[in-house]
Amino acid sequence: MSETSILSVPPEQPGLAVAPRSLIDQEAFRRLAEVPPEVEWFANLSSAATRRAYETALQDFRRFVGLREVSDFRRVTRAHVIAWRDDLVARTLSGSTVRHRLAALSSLFEYLCEKNAVTHNPVKGVRRPAVESQEGRTPALGDQQARELLDAPGEGSLKALRDKALLATLLYHGLRREEVCRLTVKDTRQQRRGVVHLRVLGKGGKTRFVPLHPAARAQIAAYLERAGHGSDVQGALFRAVKVGSGDRSRGMTPDAVYKIVRTYTAALGFEVGAHALRATAATNALDHQADIAKVQEWLGHASIATTRLYDRRHTRPEDSPTFKVSY
């Protein structure tokens, strides 16, 4: 059978190309052609976490300024942005939060400039609050607290085994909660140079391989043996265990991970979120002389400046000159 190009010219209409068969109808084509660039920008954000954070920032700005339509962003001036910034500061939000919200708004206007929807970015030139410290604000647990947390789920039940494996994966590898939710069974069995690794899908779709800590490996094996989905290599590693929770093959959500960590740490008297376990892993590795460039790669940070936020060696109380004073 001969192949016919979709651009072939029929004999009865010389000079007129045949249009390819459309996979969408004309009404859908018209709607897509009329999508405002503001909506287009938001839909093009690949990270679900970034979309959530940016949506929070832009909804806050819309409420403050009173924008009713998406296209109203094109009428925003620098005065509007400055007034919003001052309001954020007055609400006692941290400097990093204010900077992040301004960055979200600036990202939108940079895209609108590219699309010639606006003539300039009104966020440019707006002074942003200074970062309070070069040390991260996320708390890190001490060694004793980490050990207590790893033992907190107890023994016996499927939920206890799952939670012990989940907490071990977070504490021994410094994963983001979104990353641990994306892990499949197969991701825990990656062999590299004879060592079992975790394959981690990080921000921006970037994949990194992290050696699987023996303690976490043992907890994961015990969980999979009890849960019974170890042969489902393409399926989610961490799954719901409650009766009546629907499709048990579906992976856990980042919110569920957050709630699990909060519940156990609150019961232990030091309530923190899941990100604190990432900070704990990074801080612990640096305290034990891990190379900071290796920690950057391990955590999946684009910039080593972000990794330095977890480097608290210079603030350890035991190293303070206070304890060098002797009379």
What features would you describe in this structure?
This protein is mainly α and 327 residues long. It has 2 domains: 33-114, no CATH class; 143-313, Intergrase catalytic core (hpI Integrase, Chain A, Orthogonal Bundle), CATH 1.10.443. The chain is 47% helix and 5% strand. The protein has 13 helices and 3 strands. The chain has helices at residues 26-33, 37-43, 48-65, 78-90, 95-114, 143-151, 158-173, 177-182, 214-227, 254-268, 274-287, 292-299, 304-308, and strands at 190-192, 195-201, 207-211. It has a 3-stranded antiparallel beta sheet. α6 runs antiparallel to α7 (158-173). The chain is globular and about 60 Å long. The model is unreliable at 1-13 (pLDDT under 50).
Features:
327 residues, hpI Integrase, Chain A, 2 domains, globular, disordered N terminus
Topology record:
Elements: H1 26-33, H2 37-43, H3 48-65, H4 78-90, H5 95-114, H6 143-151, H7 158-173, H8 177-182, E1 190-192, E2 195-201, E3 207-211, H9 214-227, H10 254-268, H11 274-287, H12 292-299, H13 304-308
Antiparallel strand pairs: 1-2, 2-3
Short description:
The protein is mainly alpha-helical. The protein contains 13 helices and three strands.
Q: Report the average pLDDT across residues.
A: 86
Main β sheet profile: 3 strands, antiparallel
CATH homologous superfamily label of the largest domain: Intergrase catalytic core
- Round the Cα radius of gyration to an integer and report it: 26 Å
Q: Tell me the series of helices and strands, N- to C-terminal.
A: HHHHHHHHEEEHHHHH
CATH topology of the largest domain: hpI Integrase, Chain A
Strand order of the largest sheet: 1-2-3
